[in-house]
Amino acid sequence: MIKNYLKSQSKDITQLLSLTLGKNHAWLLANDDYQLNEAQTQTLNTLIKKREQGVPFAYLSGTKGFYHLDFKVTPDTLIPRPETELLIDITLDLFSNKTKPYHLLDLGTGSGIIAITLADKNPHWHITATDFSQKALAVAKQNAAITDNEVNFQQGSWFEAVSKQTFDLIISNPPYIEQDSSYLKNLTHEPKTALTSGKDGLDAIRLIINNAPEHLNKQGYLLLEHGFNQQQEITQLLEKYFSNIQIFNDYNSNQRAILAQFKP
User: Which CATH class is domain 60-262?
Assistant: First the structure.
């Protein structure tokens, strides 16, 4: 019965029961004497085993909420983090003229959460999103169906996908974890290419900063998510081509994002 499972120590058992039965938490509590049939029991036991093996719940459910939307996620894409919602807030606050057709670029879009969320929030913006992974882009294109506003998806590594295009804002949540970081032990099921970037975690960020000037309109902006201990070094990298550098902490008061304006 449901009550027996709820008393167990299995990780995320309530969510796994809800996923198995297609019922919410309130229904589970109100019907805790419900007896699972054989097929439901088998499904639940499989989910419990996978969760105990460390498979993230988002990959088991196939969805993850981000900002005001629910996105499809697969092991080909990074699981959306609440910290990345900060990039949405910064972007929405950046442009005071909400009806101007600004051109935005989301580099390394993954499941498309940044590009699609911004497209849904402002239909006047022209948004391009790139990724080197065809599998990730396939997921992003499916997610784009949740908004009526168009996102232009391009396949390619970083700026290769937009070789001669320029934008008013370039946004990226690039990989920024050090390749030998102990933090990776808890992220074994997510794509490593979306997590790590060289010995100090800054290889992708260096590439983006050094190439962004060629793809920014006059007084355009670059917005980056980064690790909690990388802000000072990134600021130094930006100072060659950018001014008006602003730093942002996430909701846990950790250094998380940096915004800079291109100085031609």
Answer: alpha beta
